[in-house]
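re: ur question from yesterday

yeah so i grabbed the chain u mentioned. its 513 aa long if i counted rite. heres the sequnce exactly as i have it in my notes:
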Amino acid sequence: MRSTRHPLPTRLIVSLLGVFLAACGGESTHDSAAPIFQAAPMAPAPAITFSGSRNNYLITRTATGFEVRDLSGKTANVAVAIDASLKFSDMTVNLAIGEQSKVLSANNLRTLIELYIAFFNRVPDADGLGYWIQQMKAGMTVDQLANNFYAAAVQYPTLTGYSATMSNAEFVKIIYKNVLGRTGNTAPPDADINFWAGELNSGKASKGSLVTTMLNAAHGFAGDATWGWVPQLLDNKIAVGSYFAIEQGLGYADPNDSISKGIAIAAMVTASNTSNAKTLINIKDNNFSLLATTPTGSGKGDSRDCYNSDLYKQGVVYKMEMASTLRATGTTESFTTTYTPNGTVNFKDNTVQEIVMDSLQLTGLSAGVTSQLKSYVAVNNNEYITYGSILTVKLNTTTNYVVTTVMTPPQKSPFSLPLNQAYVQTYSNTQEIAGKTISMPSTTESLTFLGTESVSVPAGTFTACKMQLTNNSNGANTTSYTWYIADSNLRGLPAKTEAEGVTTVATKLSITR
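ran it thru and got these structure tokens back, copy pasting raw so excuse formatting
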């Protein structure tokens, strides 16, 4: 990796390609039939270059910026500023665009993204979008923006569908076809075409401003039984454009890809589907979002306050009754779990402690299902080390399956963690099921202590250590937050967990010594 600084432009570049890549336009806020030719806007900060593709890295927020982690483990983690620009072999990431987008009203930001797609037939890139955000912040109106976009779009008729020689009626037809998706059986009648062409003929509208007007009119059909799909298509295009440029902060390292791949992504959007377009974008760092509200902790406290050595002693039994709620539907299921340390045993030639976790599903679709998880661990003054486990799941009295998992190397959970600094480890595991051994993809795990804070659950109100756990396995990321009790005689037990779409809270807790 190396840090490179983008060269500042010393002159205006008379290149129509540069105009198109930047969504064309320039420094003037005056309406003009000819764009101001300018190279693509510079990224907001010096670029930090990485040798691999975007999907080879995990980007996570830190207390002061972001951290870029090589999933192969071949290079060290790189701390970057909150407004850094990253360049991978295939893509660029503008980390500043999420905050930068907030300087515009939500309505103006939507309009900007929609016009970008309408005129250039592709999703916006983060750097180009950031440039136009600044222009609008400086006073450029929506109509002036649209006229600048139109002036550039006509230079590439084969890509955009617009040309300088088309008639007003032909121009309107292109809007209906390429922007509103109305062609074939849904093509507009001549009366509608003539109405909008008349706005141009009379001078009431410019071609740039007419696109804005027609888009606004189309949004008025939301919920309409016949034409409601049109505004839905527009909304979906905005959603995908926002996901690509703002939420992910993306652009392509090769300017030609910005055109060809940007067009391909926009073409995949339909009135009923955005997933195909996101699949084509193909970002596997699922938890990364520049628009996400980052859960934070108090930034104070000691993680060791949540360690309870009694939980690993033979003769101690602790029991938890928990309720898990699927946030999307509000559906809640409850279960009870009892932990029993069984003393020292041998597991795969390792002398370890066996901790037995017996669970019973109390309510929900799986009510009555029991499972037993035997974890094989070593505990010292500094950390908790997991060598593997044996999981047995039963339905009533019938054994469904038994799975033995072996960790390589053993998974470590330190008791003492610095505030807001991730403890990162990579491990793999094999699973033995019905006599067969399956090698699972390696997992890179990041554990962060966010501080102590008060948490209230049905079991009570506690001071708790808030922990963030991020896992990356086979290119997919998951993040969860768990609050471990730091006070009272229940120290060390989990009070609450927030995972992917699910919140689990303790309803009853006990430790018997």
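noticed a couple things. Residues 67 and 79 are 4 Å apart (CA to CA). also DSSP finds twelve helices and 21 strands in the chain.
anyway ttyl
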